[in-house]
Amino acid sequence: MRVVDLLLENSLQLRLQTPSGEERLAVEVSGCAPTELMDPTPFLDPNSLLLTSGIGMNFIDERTWDAFVERLAAVPVSGVVFATGLAHRTLPPGLVLACATHDVPLLEVPSVVPLLQVDRFVESFMQAERLDVVNQGWSLADECARLANQDAEVVTLLVAVFDVVQSPLAVYDGYGSVIAQYPAAVTWASGISKKPRVGVLSIPLPMGLNNPCHLAVRETDAEKPLASLLGPVASIIALQLNRSVMVDASRHQEIKDLVTACESWEESTHRDVRKAFQAVGLDHRAETSLLVADMSGEFASTSWQLRVALHEVFHTVRVTEFDERLIAFAQMPRDDFDAATERLLGIQSRQPLVLKTPTPSLFELRLSVVHSLQLLRQISQPQLAPDLGLSAVVMATAGRGARESAKKFLAPLLEHDTKRAGQLVETLEAFLEHDAHPSKTCAALFIHRNSLNYRLRKIESLLRLDLNTVDGQATCLFALRLVRLVEN
Fold first, then answer.
1. Which of 171, 341, 346, 427 could bridge across to 455 with cysteines, CB 3.0–4.6 Å?
2. Domain 3-113: what homologous superfamily?
3. DSSP string for 333-370
């Protein structure tokens, strides 16, 4: 309710006695404050409407009236409604002058209108406004529920809310990270704030979590009842956030079984992988993307961001966490894959995260799982994985025949080291680990260049190959990887 609404009500017969402008009369009234106190300011809320008959204010000195109105303006009050006929036959000139000086609207109530009638009108008007806000809030919640039923993402719900409140919005997770916002260009502070932020209304989302997410909205209009308006829609946003978690939670064991089947090349057949893939609820005819991320320590705070981002860029997502890793299988990107890559790799610049391009076959997906999980241990930032990884190929070819051949191939080195307390196997591993670079190998082993050359020539003699060729280095690398695979 605005001050001008009182003037527009004919039944009250109020008369404006100050030269108040449109902007001043458009101030929202926070409530009525009937009082006859000489100084009611300690009991007034900002923008309350002061109702008085001036009983006990029988002073003539203009300075007294000026001090009285100055205190009211400091609160500030939205206006003064003064009833004539009871204590004052006409408006005190000092009051009129003081209200005009301090830009406080002064409304005169004629003697034929009880002051109580003004109070009742204001309260009924504001009650109707509050009911209208509640109805508007439920209408907004209904619209968001309709969007949610169509599998709309959280940011789509924020767009619908923004259209009503016309204020920027964001959703924070329990760690204080922004997981969704609209408009995208608005900057939001990160981290958890124990104190309310000035100009930001924060509404906890009912999610059944110890550290719930929050809906934050910029209070660009202090008079807008955002808390009442957004209360119902907060529940819809919470349900939509929980939706992915509930779907993921129901598939947790199936996703874990699929990962285990992909890694167990000897125990699990291609048919086992296909069966586990179907149990997850994915379409074997669609291309599948893979994302794995380190969730240990500080990186746990990105869980919600990754989940929301995955559901925003893919139509179908299956994601879960175990062993401090987040693993997600996703199909049908909403946009091109380059846009999805930019969105997912840009969440946390220091988080080990691997994203694999879409794969059309289950056999290729199996290699992707093995490659991505091993690559995750070697990186320190988000990375789009290469299409082929040596570790995955080694894993895929690690049948009994390959492993036995590798052990037989390296047997001369192992026998030499056992009999002569040598270090040929260690030297070969260091040489390959440092990309066949002699200086780096010597530094790692703390040996002289001549000692390295002697050992390498001995290795070539025992294995009957040339370590200066790519073929010779690759053969040794495969053999060592296969043997280590058996030992692990």
1. 427
2. HprK N-terminal domain-like (3.40.1390.20)
3. ESS-HHHHHHHHHTS-TTS-EEEEEEESSHHHHHHHHH
- For 165-190, the DSSP string reads H-S-EEEE-TTS-EEEEESTT-----
Check: CB of residue 454 under 8 Å from CB of residue 424.
Answer: no
In 3D space, the residue among 166, 231, 179 whose CA is nearest the CA of residue 202 turns out to be: 231
Q: How many CB atoms lie within 10 A of CB 320?
A: 22
Task: Give the tokens for residue 37.
Answer: 């106190």
Backbone angles phi, psi at 420, to 5 degrees: -115, 10
Residue at token pair 């005169």: 108
Choice between 94 and 347, residue whose per-residue pLDDT is larger = 94
Domain ranges of the chain: 3-113, 133-243, 251-396, 400-487
* CATH code assigned to 400-487: 1.10.10.2840
- Residue 258 to residues 310, 353, 424, 473, 488: CA-CA distances in angstroms? 19, 19, 39, 34, 21
CA triplet 340, 278, 356: central angle to 5 degrees? 25
Q: Which CATH class is domain 251-396?
A: alpha beta
- What is the rounded distance in angstroms from the CA atom of residue 200 to the CA atom of residue 236? 20
Read off the pLDDT of each residue in 53-70 and give the average, rounded to a whole number.
89
Q: Yes or no: say if 104 and 72 are a contact pair by the CB < 8 Å rule.
A: yes
Q: Is 314 helix (H, G, I), strand (E, B) or coil?
A: strand
Write the pLDDT tens digit of every residue in 396-410.
Answer: 665 556 677 788 889
> In terms of pLDDT, which residue wins out, 223 or 320?
320
Q: How many CA atoms lie within 13 A of 423 on its CB side?
A: 10
> How many angstroms separate the CA atoms of 340 and 312, rounded?
9
Contact 51, 123 (CB under 8 A): no
Nearest to 101 by CA among 18, 22, 21, 44: 18
Distance, CA of 483 to chain centre: 44
Tell me the three state secondary structure of residue 251.
coil
Residue 205 has pLDDT above 80, yes or no: yes
Amino acid found at 457: R
